[in-house]
Fold these 2 entries.
Entry 1:
Amino acid sequence: MRHVNALVVLAKAPRPGLAKTRLAAAGRRTLEQAAQLARAFLEDTLASVRAASVERRWLGFTPEDAAGEFAERAPDFERFAQARGDLGARIADAFERAFAAGAARAVVIGSDAPQLGAARIESALAELGRCELVLGPARDGGYYLIGLARPRPELFEGLAWSTERVLAQTLERAAAAGLRASLLDELDDIDGDAELARLEDQLVRAPQLAPATARALAELRGER
């Protein structure tokens, strides 16, 4: 039987005052500039998914009134409004949709790691042939990617979301459930200035890792 690989992107509409507001909080950037970066992050993320060997591609969006703008940004993705509740509820719903549609392996990502690349997505899916859970650790203690070989909603209930404990708690839940887990390499989730500065240094040397983000950062530096 052929294995169907599925990828779900969970994304917030890249609007001023809604997306990447922490990048504007220190006063170095406006809310419009933060939204410009959010749009670039999303563009690079979707490009990585398009380049990966994935049979089914979904985009879960928020808020609910963003359906039209995401239809323009991702007409080649199946789209749905994210479930209500905390991040755990939204991730669990994304997996439920993917497996209900016939996926044998599913990966869920956000759009905060534009340097992700197609190869990491494919590595995660390959690892799911050998284990039940794969995680891409983020430097802030969370994760930028999670993959499952079957639904495990208990992994997402009652975690300390948006803290440095998320990855550790998830691995503890997995161990308690007897799940074999695999970890990818560590990346930054780009939430604040420190992470963005590290990414900018990386993209100055290798802009092909996230071309849209590299262009947006160059524009913000005043380059043409």
Note: The first strand starts at residue 5 and ends at 12.
Entry 2:
Amino acid sequence: MPLPLTREQVGKASTWLLLNFGPEIRKAVEGKPYDVAIACAIACKETGPMWVSRIDKHKPAEILALQVGDASGDFPNTSRKAFPRNTAAFRSRYGDEFTEMLIGEANKARTVRGFSPAKWVYKGYGLFQYDLQNVEKDEEFFRKKLWYNMDSCLERFTLILDSKFKAAGNDEREGVRRYNGAGASAEEYADHVMTFVGWCRGTM
């Protein structure tokens, strides 16, 4: 699969991230086995295609609010193993009010991207795509829409990446790969992110 962003787009995205959220990102990675470039590169890979073309049209806070993605389990011909496997599974456990709120957030993002409304609960939230499976232990993040807040996104992102890097013996590529999972798609994910890391470091 080709890279989802060009070198020029990654440079533009990382510059925007540091201009608007540089202090927060630097504080979040301080003392970690990974750096600002890795954080920016993962944001580019996870959600960059959804926002890099919009940073001249929307305020930073608006960009954060619209980072709702991943309709797996509901989008035709897709499946998902983690809870919730689909919108029906989420609704069954958490009820209509919570479900409809998340559908509404997904549709705000869909509208900006030029898509018509759907009745799907999306599974990824925030610049780093904090997965909805975490609702079972971190319900507050989703109920209170904390992906609107960069510090809240970074707190969850670094907590997960810390564990992945620890398991990887602080190897950069392996830590990045584990952030995405296992298998061929995770290997490709790591290849893309590490390419972006090199480009990001070239602009910092």
Note: The two ends are 27 Å apart (CA to CA).
